[in-house]
Amino acid sequence: MKPFSVHHCTVLDKYNFLSFDNFVNFKNACFVYKVLNGLAPPPLQEFIKRKTVSGMATRAMARGDCHVPYRRTKFAKTVLSVKGTKYWNSLPSSIRETPTLATFKLHLKQWLKENQCVIMLLFGVSSRLLNVGEQGHMALLGHSLAAYISVLDRERLRKLTTRILSDTTMWLCRLFRYENGSACFHDDDRDGLVKVCRLVINARYQEYASEGYTVLSSKQPIIYQSASCRPGLAQHLCTQLGLPLSSLCTVPCNTVFGSQHQMDVALLEKLIKEDKEAGKLPLLLIANAGTPGAGHTDKLGRLRDLCDQYSLWLHVEGVNLATLALGEVTSAIMAATRSDSMTLTPGQWLGLPAVTAVTLYRHEDPALSLAAGLTPSQPVDKLRALPLWLSLQHLGHSGVVQKFRHATSLVEDELKSPVVLFKFSQEMSAGEGLTLWTLGEQLAQLVPTSGVDVVELEEEGTCVRFSPLVTAAVLGTQQEDVEDLVVKLMEVVPVMDSTLCLIQDFREQTHRHSPSLRYIEEHSWPGLGAVRYEPQADGMDEIRRKQELEKINTELLKKLQELDTDIIFSSGSEFGREEDCIFVGMVTEDVDVCELVDTIAALGRDIVESGRLLENMTEVVRKGILEAELQLQKANEEKLIEEGMLRQLPLVGSVLNWFSPVQSSIKGRTFNLAAGSLDSTEVTYSTKAQAGKLSLQDAPTSSSKRLPGSITHLV
């Protein structure tokens, strides 16, 4: 296929053809229908007329014939070659061949609605991809375009990538109020901090470029981080930089004044003084503008002053940095603009798939930035900014701000902290962890677009978190989803509350039925509790006992699941190490726990008793079969004695039996389960024979006569 000319691109872009994010799209499919059937707007029809191959097609188009064969026009062939013939042919012929545009729209709407899953499979598009929005598709287009641009000649590539990088850097610095900054684009959001550390090491150790790590032995560099930083960040830094873990200093958070998730500034200053006195070099401080767990912001203003006092590099990261783009910004977040560097994740905040993270920094020596890897040395590396460049072009400044404002508006205190955490009261801390995990999972399933998750905090324990700045753009969270989340929360919480209140009663009622019913301690189970029915097993080995327990509790679980109740019973194998248990789910406050436990115990007893009855019956049947075999064997021996040896010979026995037949004296045996007795089958056969004779006598016949004292003959 030949590439589009400039004229092609201009005309097609005018009619929004190049903005196809998916061919199976109602608006775009209708546009193609118009093109293929001569119903396009007049300027486009003139363009098609100039591009037709045959005079017949030209005349047909000129007279407005809507049934022009689409394969007769170069433009239509270009349409099919651009998106692929399979896209158009995937539509049913009944839709493609509809005579009018109105009918085509009606049928296409219905088909798209009924075949959404088929469309995903046909075009390799997942449901998540369908929700990324237009800006997400622009980002995906940027990745493909970057691969295409990378094959250009070096000079054109250099000019293009330099323009893309400079424009994106300028837009980001203006958007996030970071004046005179440079930008580093990286796939891993931790790599920017690694490169910043290399930059600071090169700047503070003059001989580092020539001597390497040996210069660090004179003064060990120290990196400070808050105890609320994301796990593994500092360890990753030490691994990438080749520094020992002793170069990492974790600063505790406040314990008396302020937030328990903010760095203790006074303690930090004390640690810095101690390190300087020990001959170490305080190098860099990692601060949070939105901790990973609770979304709290450190006192960035005081930290900035402290870093200026002791010549530390201040690096800031966190989700709250996104609020710098809003019109109203709190002073705590505004202080982040005075930092030496900060890491942004615009792809996550704007819902852009596979878009790089960005680290903005200020440094005057470009040579050190190049040595640290902050400045790309190859033009191809600068193409990492292309997807973000396209997305920012598409959204514009107002579009980016609108997305951030929408995300923050989903929480009540939108400026102070765009992260909402909630948990159960301290009075119920015993079952708090398991309940909150279940609550978070249930809410995520009931309202998947809300983006709620569960976090473990050091002081607060397990909490449910709602962070729309991180999830709203990706999931498309709206105000209706938040309202739905509140409704579901009000439905689920009372059930969990009542379950926590009834756990102790359930434990006590289970102990009342001991030892047959045993309560199992499973703290990981988010329900009423777990029990196991254990009948007495005297004289039974361990293997047989386990098999018996498994059989009884499996049958008991099956019977409980058949009950007409809202309570969920399960085996719970994924929650605990105990085997052969019955896990009772959450219950409402109107559930009678005593009756519930009595029902479980009664069903268990019934299963055990029925099992014992079956075992007894099996033993009786087995003994009856053995006795019947002995009697039949004895009868067979008596028959041999009565008939003699000659009748047992093959040929002689047949002749003797022909001259003098012998009636068989061996009778079968029947086993009466009710009486437990073994009887002969002679009585049974005689009874059936009499019944058969009576039925024959009562049956009407058309070809026989009944004579006194004679046998009835049937013809």
Class by alpha and beta content: alpha/beta
Numbering strands along the chain, what is their spatial order in the largest sheet? Answer: 1-7-6-5-4-2-3
Please give the CATH class of one domain: Alpha Beta
Q: Calculate the terminal CA-CA distance, rounded to whole Å.
A: 92 Å
The helix tally amounts to 28
The proportion of strand residues reads 5-15%
Radius of gyration: 42 Å
Overall 3D shape? elongated
- Average pLDDT, to the nearest integer? 75
CATH superfamily of one domain, called what?
Type I PLP-dependent aspartate aminotransferase-like (Major domain)
Largest sheet: 7 strands, mixed
Ranges where pLDDT stays below 50 over 5 or more residues in a row are 1-24, 47-86, 117-130, 699-715
* CATH architecture classification name of one domain: 3-Layer(aba) Sandwich
Keywords: Decarboxylase, Lyase, Pyridoxal phosphate
GO molecular function: carboxy-lyase activity; pyridoxal phosphate binding
Protein name: Pyridoxal-dependent decarboxylase domain-containing protein 1
InterPro entries: GrpII_AminoAcid_Decarb, PDXDC1-like_2nd, PDXDC1-like_3rd, PyrdxlP-dep_de-COase, PyrdxlP-dep_Trfase, PyrdxlP-dep_Trfase_major
